[in-house]
C-alpha cells in the first residue's frame, strides 16, 4: 500500500515553500545584474509586464496541473494531457537535475563569503586586497570548491529527506521570515546612503530609448527562471496542494513576493554602488562580479553597519539558494518516488548523490582541470559550468515552459482547468477567461519568441 500523499499544511505553507523556490540566486545575483546591463527603468517595466502576462499564467498552469493529478512532473503531465506528455515531464526532471548540479556551486560560494566576512568583521577588511583576486583564488581552489558544494548538497538532501510538510515546508517557514528580515535591515541601511536617490531613479525611471529588443527577450527569459517555471518545480509543489487551497491566490502571492524581493535586492545593491564615487564604472562585467567581487569590499568600506550587514548579506544569499535547491531536488526525487516506487529516504539520497557527481564537474570548471575547464560545445561558453548553464537557461527552460503552456491551454479541456481555478476559493479579481486567453495565446507566443531568438543565436545564460 502506498502512503497517503503529504500535503502543505496550509496556504501559507504552500506560498512560503513556493516563494522559497522562486526567490534564489536569480533574484539576488542575476536580476540586479541584467537590470544594470540594460540600463534599468524601461527594462524593469518590461520585466514587470512579462511577469504578469507570462509568468503568472504559467505559474497557475503548473500548480493546477500538479494539484489535479496529485503526482509529480512526469505523472502529472501524462494525466493532464496524455501519455506522450510524460516526455515533457521527463525533460523537466532532467532540467532540474542539471540546474541543481551547478546551482549548488554558486550557492557554495555564499558559504565561503559568509565565513570570510565573519573574519573581516572581527579582523578588519584587509587593506589593499584586490577583491577580484580573492574570488579567483577561491574558485580556482579545487579542494575548497568540492568542500563548499558538498556542504550545500548535504544541506539540501537533509531537508528533502524529511518530506514535504516536515522538511520543505518547515524550513521555508523558518527561513523565509529570516530572509525577509535581513532584506528589510539591508534596505533601511541602503536607503540611508547617499546613492539611494540615484539608484531609485535608475531602477524606476523608464527611458525607452535605452531599451533594445534583446533586453525585452532577456526580461522574458529571466521571468521564467526567477519564478522556477518551465521544469516542473511548480507542478511538483502543486501536487501537494489540497483541494481546500486556492491556486489563484497562492500564485498571485508567490509572483508578487518574488518580484518584490528582486526589486528590493536591486535597490540595495545599486544604492551601495552609487554611493561610492567611481564605483558605477567599476562594477565587474558579470553577475558574479557584482555579488562576489564588488559588494564584499563595499560592505566594509562604505555601508553603515557593514560589519554586521556584510555577513548577514551572505547568510541571505545562502538561505535564498537553499530554499531553491530543495525545490530542484524535490522535482527529481519525487519523480523517482512516484514513478519508480522507491521510498522517499532512499530516493532522496540516491538522487542527491547522483546529482552531486555532476556538481563535482561544475565545481572543478574553474580550476584549470582539463576538459572540465575547457570543453566548449556552445561557442564562447568554455567549461562544464558555462555549458550546463547555457543549455538549461537557453534550451531546457523555454522548451519546457512552451510545452507546459500548450498542455494547459490546448491539450487539457476547458472544464478540467476551470475546475481547478474556479472552485470557490479564487479571489474576486480573477477572471478565468482572461487566464485562458493568456495561456493559449500570449504565453506560447512570448515563449516561442525566446526559442526563436535562441535558435537565431541569442544567449540567455
Ligand atoms: N527561481 C530560482 C532563482 O531565482 C531558480 C530556480 C529555477 C529554482 C527553477 C527552481 C527551479 O534563483
Can you characterise this structure?
This protein is mainly α. The protein has helices at 11-22, 25-37, 41-69, 73-81, 86-123, 131-139, 142-161, 164-191, 196-204, 213-226, 233-238, 247-275, 279-282, 287-301, 306-340, 344-363, 384-411, 414-421, 432-455. The N and C termini lie far apart (44 Å). Bound molecules: phenylalanine. Phenylalanine (PHE) binds next to α1, α2, α10 and α15.
Please outline the helices and strands.
Layout: H1 11-22, H2 25-37, H3 41-69, H4 73-81, H5 86-123, H6 131-139, H7 142-161, H8 164-191, H9 196-204, H10 213-226, H11 233-238, H12 247-275, H13 279-282, H14 287-301, H15 306-340, H16 344-363, H17 384-411, H18 414-421, H19 432-455
Bound molecules: phenylalanine.
Phenylalanine is lined by residues 21-22, 24-27, 225-226, 228, 231, 233, 324, 327-328.
Amino acid at each position: 500500500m502506498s502512503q497517503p500523499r503529504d500535503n502543505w499544511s496550509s496556504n501559507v505553507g504552500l506560498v512560503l515553500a513556493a516563494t522559497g523556490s522562486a526567490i534564489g540566486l536569480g533574484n539576488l545575483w542575476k536580476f540586479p545584474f541584467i537590470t544594470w546591463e540594460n540600463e534599468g527603468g524601461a527594462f524593469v517595466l518590461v520585466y514587470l509586464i512579462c511577469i504578469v502576462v507570462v509568468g503568472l499564467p504559467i505559474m497557475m498552469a503548473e500548480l493546477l496541473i500538479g494539484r489535479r493529478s496529485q503526482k509529480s512532473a512526469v505523472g502529472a503531465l501524462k494525466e493532464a494531457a496524455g501519455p506522450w506528455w510524460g516526455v515533457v515531464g521527463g525533460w523537466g526532471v532532467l532540467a532540474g537535475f542539471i540546474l541543481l548540479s551547478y546551482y549548488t556551486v554558486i550557492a557554495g560560494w555564499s558559504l565561503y563569503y559568509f565565513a570570510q566576512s565573519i573574519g573581516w568583521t572581527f579582523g578588519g577588511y584587509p587593506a589593499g586586497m584586490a577583491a577580484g583576486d580573492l574570488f579567483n583564488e577561491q574558485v580556482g581552489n579545487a579542494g575548497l570548491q568540492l568542500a563548499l558544494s558538498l556542504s550545500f548538497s548535504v544541506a539540501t538532501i537533509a531537508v528533502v529527506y524529511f518530506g514535504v510538510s516536515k522538511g520543505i515546508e518547515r524550513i521555508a517557514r523558518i527561513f523565509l521570515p529570516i530572509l525577509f528580515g535581513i532584506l528589510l535591515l539591508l534596505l533601511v541601511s541602503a536607503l540611508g546612503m547617499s546613492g539611494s536617490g540615484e539608484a531609485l531613479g535608475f531602477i524606476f525611471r523608464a527611458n525607452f530609448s535605452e531599451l533594445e529588443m534583446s533586453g525585452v527577450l532577456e526580461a522574458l527569459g529571466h521571468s521564467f527562471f526567477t519564478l522556477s517555471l518551465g521544469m516542473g518545480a511548480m507542478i511538483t509543489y502543486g501536487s501537494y496542494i489540497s483541494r481546500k487551497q486556492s491556486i489563484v491566490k497562492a500564485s498571485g502571492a508567490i509572483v508578487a513576493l518574488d518580484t518584490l524581493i528582486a526589486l528590493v535586492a536591486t535597490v540595495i545593491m545599486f544604492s551601495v554602488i552609487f554611493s561610492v564615487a567611481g564605483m558605477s564604472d567599476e562594477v565587474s562585467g558579470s553577475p558574479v562580479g557584482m555579488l562576489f567581487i564588488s559588494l564584499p569590499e563595499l560592505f566594509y568600506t562604505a555601508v553603515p553597519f557593514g560589519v554586521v550587514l556584510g555577513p548577514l548579506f551572505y547568510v541571505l544569499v545562502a538561505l535564498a539558494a537553499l530554499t531553491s535547491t530543495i525545490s530542484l531536488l524535490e522535482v527529481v526525487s519525487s519523480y523517482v518516488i512516484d514513478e519508480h516506487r522507491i521510498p522517499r529516504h532512499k530516493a532522496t539520497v540516491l538522487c542527491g548523490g547522483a546529482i552531486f557527481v555532476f556538481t563535482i564537474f561544475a565545481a572543478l570548471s574553474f580550476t584549470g582541470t582539463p576538459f572540465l575547464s575547457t570543453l566548449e560545445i556552445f561557442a564562447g561558453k568554455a567549461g562544464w559550468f558555462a555549458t550546463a548553464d547555457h543549455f538549461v537557461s537557453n534550451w531546457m527552460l523555454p522548451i519546457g515552459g512552451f510545452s507546459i503552456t500548450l498542455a494547459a491551454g490546448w491539450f487539457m479541456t476547458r472544464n478540467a482547468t476551470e475546475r481547478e481555478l474556479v472552485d470557490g476559493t479564487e479571489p474576486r479579481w480573477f477572471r478565468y477567461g482572461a487566464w485562458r486567453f493568456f495561456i493559449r495565446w500570449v504565453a506560447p507566443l512570448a515563449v516561442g519568441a525566446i526559442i526563436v531568438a535562441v535558435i537565431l543565436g541569442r544567449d540567455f545564460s
